[in-house]
């Protein structure tokens, strides 16, 4: 069986779906591996390293798609790439299981497609959890971007010229990205506060040295909804959202940096920082909106832009992991490798176990039909 890794063509995408490390392991399993020449260059994985690991270098994406039985991707195939897909081919990547149009196009191409973001939040699937591996990087990079845009120090400094106060950082949403943002901001010496709808997040936030912004629950319904489903948050009642908005607004007015990470799968991002709150923030403050691709946690954020509104810098990059291409690729490639173990046999041949709960959850297209509703 031949596994192919094409160059990612989306603008700004530096990641690659396999590294020399994972290519070597795939070759040891018995699979043949082809990689498009230059596919890893943007993340500093060079062709010579792939060749040494046992991969065959292929000059063009068209040649690769024409030969590969399994295609490993980071982003979902663009329309140009879909023209090269063949019936019976397997496509694995972050295919956006909520993109109904994209899934229909994959089904129409006759491929069997697996969206790794759809893996269930169970212990057995942790090693292939692409959302966690990439969100971890996004949370880290968000703090570095904020520190770069902020015109002051983050840590408290005592100098002969006087004392510089520590920056105050507020993190909204304490999933994987939020927790990494808290940890990184603390390592840089900031005073950190954080908020999350899920009660279990309080202990995690405080264990990292941050203060938990507590929004009390007034009803059993609010408390039940806050537990979330499968590790994901659920939309909260309007009354709780109003109380949170008031409390968060007060914290943001005092903050120097705000990092927002709140997302609900398949839904627009909740608005956590209103325009009125931005107006009340200190001049020179910074907001990094990690939910901007889903509409944003702040209505003033703009996808893939850095804008200044009411004296506040709003950073809206949509692909922060691609800014740390080498490590993001290394982690993602290991996620992909662990998923491949579920659909390959001991000789490296394709053996899709459709009854496996992880395989079934990730499968979004098969036999010319969409197998998952968006």
Task: Summarize the topology.
Blueprint (H helix, E strand, L loop, with lengths): L1 E4 L14 H9 L3 E5 L10 H7 L2 E3 L2 H7 L2 E6 L3 H4 L7 E5 L5 H9 L3 E4 L14 H20 L7 E3 L2 E3 L3 E5 L3 H12 L3 E5 L5 H7 L3 E2 L7 H7 L11 H17 L2 E4 L14 H6 L5 E4 L16 E4 L2 E4 L9 H16 L16 H6 E4 L2 E2 L4
Parallel strand pairs: 1-2, 1-4, 2-3, 4-5, 5-6, 9-10, 9-12, 10-11, 12-13, 13-15
Antiparallel strand pairs: 6-16, 7-8, 14-15, 16-17
Verbal overview:
This protein has 374 residues and is α/β, with parallel strands linked by helices. Helices cover 34% and strands 18% of the residues. Strand 14 (306-309) and strand 15 (312-315) form a beta hairpin. The protein is globular. It starts with a strand and ends with a strand.
Q: Structural class per helix/strand content?
A: alpha/beta
Question: Using only CA atoms, what is the Rg?
Answer: 22 Å
User: What is the share of helical residues?
Assistant: 25-40%
Q: What general outline do the C-alpha atoms trace?
A: globular
Total strand segments: 17
Strand content range: 15-25%
Unreliable runs: none
Q: Please, how many helices?
A: 13
Strand order of the largest sheet: 3-2-1-4-5-6-16-17
Mean pLDDT: 93
Largest sheet: 8 strands, mixed
User: SSE order in H/E notation?
Assistant: EHEHEHEHEHEHEEEHEHEHHEHEEEHHEE
- Alpha-carbon distance between the two ends: 31 Å
